[in-house]
Amino acid sequence: MSKQKPGPNPDREEKVTRVSSARKLLFLAVLAVAAAGIYFWLVEEDEIIEYVGDVPAEEPQFVQEGELAFLEAGTEDTLAHIAIEVADDDAQRSQGLMYRSSLADTTGMLFIFDQPAPRSFWMKNTKIPLDILYVDEALNIFMIYKGVMPYSEKSIPSEDDALYVVEVAAGFTTRNQIEEGDLIAFEITP
Between 20 and 30 A from 9 (CA), which of 25, 32, 148, 166? Predict the structure, then answer.
């Protein structure tokens, strides 16, 4: 009796073809991921995306929109001057000083609201410690929070009606002897 060679096995050939196709697809997927990684590595981040969620790709920069003076109660002598950035609409007030790595001791932010009301701030997404000053309609500083910690979601309430809020670098009010009862005066440049 002689042995016969087995003939072609269609099931085996189909299985080999499927395995070969799967390997090709896997290879192409790995190649695509590698190409995308190289592309993102070579191209600068700010050219690829402007925002990741709500986080700006670039740190917001200070834009001077006016000047503000702190005046001593009773004498109205000037205690300090700062250049200010103004937050006078909902979007600007929501953004505030979030995502900034530093704040010069000669700068700050003035929040202007439409009407006096109790206010509450927090430090979510704020990287730097701040002094927060609540100011009434008559420009009197009635409450100062000193050295408010970065990233805190704890409410920082005004406990009275504020029309203005000023944020400066932590320690600024102590260094310049600014106290509750002192005043502010400001000028916004057109």
Answer: 25
Give the CA count within 13 Å in the CB-facing half-sphere of 40: 7
Measure the CA dihedral 24/28/30/32, to 10°: 180
Rounded to the nearest angstrom, the gap between the alpha carbon of residue 182 and the centroid of all alpha carbons in its chain is: 30
- Residue 142, classified by CB atoms within 10 Å of its CB into exposed (0-12), middle (13-18) or buried (19+), is middle
Which residues, at least 6 apart from 109, have a Cβ–Cβ distance to it below 8 Å?
84, 85, 86, 87, 96, 97, 166, 167
Go through the domains of the chain in sequence order and give each one's CATH number: 63-188 (2.60.120.1140)
Distance CA 150, CA 133 (A): 16
Nearest alpha carbon to residue 185 among 72, 96, 103, 65: 72
Say which residue the tokens 């600024």 belong to. Answer: 172
Q: Which two tokens stand for residue 88?
A: 């006078």
Are the C-beta atoms of 95 and 102 separated by less than 8 Å?
A: no
Kindly report the pTM of this predicted structure: 0.70
